Amino acid sequence: MIQERLAALREEMKKRGIDVYVVPTADFHESEYVGEHFKARKFITGFTGSAGTAVITLTKAGLMTDGRYFVQAERQLQGSTVTLYRMGEEGVPKLDELIAEELPEGGCLGFDGRVVNSAWGNRLKEIAREKGASLYVTEDLIDLIWSDRPALSKKPLFLLEEKYTGKSAKTKIADLRNVMKREGADVHILTSLYDIAWLLNIRGGDIDSVPVVLSYLILTEEECLWFLQEEIVTPEIRAYLEENQIATKPYQDIYSFVQGIPEDAVVLMDGRTVNYRISSSLNPNIKVLDRPNPTELMKAIKNKTEVDNTREAHIKDGVAFTKFMYWLKTNIGKMPMTEISASDYLEERRREQEHFIELSFETICAYGPNAAMMHYAATPETDAELKPEGLLLVDSGGHYFEGTTDITRTMALGPVTDEMRRHFTAVCRSNLALANARFLYGCTGLNLDILARGPLWDLGIDYKCGTGHGVGYVLNVHEGPNGFRWRVVPERRDNGTLEEGMITTDEPGVYLEGKYGIRIENELVCRKAEKNEYGQFMYFENITYAPIDLDAIAPEEMTSREKQWLNDYHKMVYETISPYLTAEEREWLQHYTRAI
User: Fold this and answer.
1) CB of 37 closer than 8 Å to CB of 151
2) What is the full DSSP assignment across 564-577?
3) Which domains does the chain carry?
């Protein structure tokens, strides 16, 4: 099937004289995850992961993806004629280098200008210029061969009240206009779905597990224009928009609108999220301030209401996960269980919680070797039977009106090997070391990542991903600009200064292909500690409440300080979660949070 699709695409390329066609994993807004309509890269390669770019020539096809997906991509590309390029590995070209290598002198480079951001589009334009080549960016060739392509999503909208957000849309818009004034900007083009949802206090459902609305926004001193599929605007939402002086326009009208922005205007926009079609439609005389959206930092720094609410969301989520863990540990081997049935049981426990909206991402419930794939998702074909032995990794989360959660626990279903126990304990030590960090204001995740990797590097092992990511508020579960990783990865945009109110995950791991995977993940809120002659000290508050499986811990591998950290954490978990459990569950939790 993939070979047939590639042949059909190549026919369309030949008709237009295109030598290289690039298909990224993107929508018109540079969202990390995309709706079904936008899964063109999946359609043309067969690879289902959330990140990767296809580079198609008239004779070859390649897929470039990162370390989270090497194992999965290798399996899914078998027999497709698509070559896997492992990003960051020795001898593997970077994406732009690969495109430049494949583009012949005087040739033609093609891509849909709506799914390539302005910054990358300009780099591709430069690659073409250096090769004396032309660009073809006005057509989506995948659309021509995808006969049963899903339509654009039009899910209902809902308001997020101020008791949840802590700040009104009117105030947020005024704050943004003040930033524009300081920057000297007349027009702000905002295309990030997360930022628009945060700014307007409106959520939707146009991406699975990401409650956003397909839309663009233009802000000036006088106007706030929201470009969306207007048929989804209910009378209630319309009244809210009018009250906040927000006017709507048809979704596709953004392109004609930006063409009409006066040439003497100063436009503020983020070239990493505004698509190439929009940026190249602007009058070339316009002064563009290409910098991060001010809303990116505004929404990353949670206000007191958001932090307090998120803590409440984690209590609910901790109750749901603890009930799941109790069920799993007490029933394994006594009743049939699979990855999917266990995942379904956990989802049911979340749906019982008040103000639950939806899962914050597709649950990763991975047993044995499947857990070595960091972003594995069970299917009916791969659905492994759970047995009373080895390790089960479950990475999951939920959106509640009070906030968004993301938790991973790896659990022993029965006997585990000494190697598993040693690696599990190292991951636990890594998690605790980062969670208990004290540091000076001004640090980024780069400064602190070694605390998590240290115990694993001591064993000569590593994990091919970051240690943690920012978390949105009833938004995307991966949010910048905060994160933990040991080196700068420009496309991740997560090297910002750690500010009070930022929420970041702490999730070191071990992944041994063909054997098992281990990850322990909690969420941390950045807080201010004392300020003295050395500066402002900072620390983290751990807001994830669920036991770390003591059945897989080797206490002899831990220092007394590390044991105390774990004991203190488990004491907090028991005190927080136990009031919401049955007598049997409470007794079980007391045992699984005992001091070691």
Assistant:
1) yes
2) HHHHHHHHHHHHHH
3) 2-145 (3.40.350.10), 158-293 (3.40.350.10), 301-592 (3.90.230.10)
Phi then psi for residue 545, to 5 deg, are -125, 90
Nearest CA to 62 out of 40, 88, 80 is that of: 80
Whole-angstrom Cα distance, residue 199 to residue 210? 16
**Sign of the dihedral through C-alpha 443, 445, 447, 451:** positive
| Nearest alpha carbon to residue 416 among 558, 557, 555, 553 | 553
* pLDDT, tens digit, 9 for 90 and up, residues 415-466: 999 999 999 999 999 999 999 999 999 999 999 999 999 999 999 999 999 9
- DSSP code of residue 495: -
Instruction: Write out the H or E segment, with its range, that includes residue 213.
Output: none
CA atoms within 13 A on the CB side of 581: 27
CA angle 501, 502, 504 (to 5 degrees): 140
Tokens of 78: 């078998």
Q: 88 in helix, strand or coil?
A: coil
378-415: per-residue pLDDT in tens? 999 999 999 999 999 999 999 999 999 999 999 999 99
Integer Cα distance of 431 and 185 in angstroms: 43
Distance separating alpha carbons of residues 572 and 173, to the nearest angstrom:
39
* Residue 490 pLDDT exceeds 90: no
What type of residue is 2?
Answer: I
Provide φ and ψ at 353, rounded to 5°: -80, 140
Q: 30-63 in b/e burial notation, b at 16+ Cβ within 10 A?
A: bbbbbbebbbbbbbbbbbbbbbbbbbbbbeebbb
